[in-house]
Amino acid sequence: MRMKRLLLAGSFALSCSVLAPQELNLRYEVADNGNSVMVSWDQVDGASWYRISVDGVAVDSVQAGSGTSFRITSEHAGKVVRVEAVGTNITEEIDFSPSVTDLILFSREDPDTLHPEASGLYYYYFERYFISDTSNWFRIDFYIGDENGDDTADLNSPRVYGINNEYNMSAPWGTGNCAPDSGYALTTNLVQGAEFALWLSYDQEWGLADNFARITVDSADSFRVELTIHYQMEYGLRWVGK
Ligand SMILES: [Ca+2]
Fold it and tell me: Cα of 222 to ligand 1 centre, how many Å?
């Protein structure tokens, strides 16, 4: 009896080995002004349904034969999207994890000329720049300075000081892992412990040339701030999971 089972297992493995491996070919599009991700995949043999999850938490399921796409809305925003073909061992993922930069910046009112006041994106991370060096200006995405005169350091769009004409506005983060749709300003007071959304944009309309980041204020006084920036590398996507 034992021998017979082993022979059956052997012939099964042999017959499977001649078939091309199946793939979901999981793909996506940023949708809904950057709030949603539309995922789609190929049907695979043997799947009874497809489980969609974000960061290990099930979002929904799609029965086999009833569709091969799903829109993941902002309430489920996170980092890793997974689609599992239940009934097979086929699982594929898309990783929307942000890059992370820690920064110390100073107010442009700080008299110490060795203290950098501005920052800009260099590939996927933020670099520090001196406002005094105008050759840096085209690289600057925001700078620190008390532009509204209330003795607190502010996060400012480069447009405020005429550094360049990008908008790059900020807004209180709100809740969840999705940057807000509205409430953006050119100048935002930085408060220790607060979180802000940074919207990198050449105009004031959302588009697929834009990027979003999530800024945590680790400390802030009138001259010096420490920031942690999570940057979503996917164009247009408001999701920034931590
Ligand atoms: Ca201020």
Answer: 8
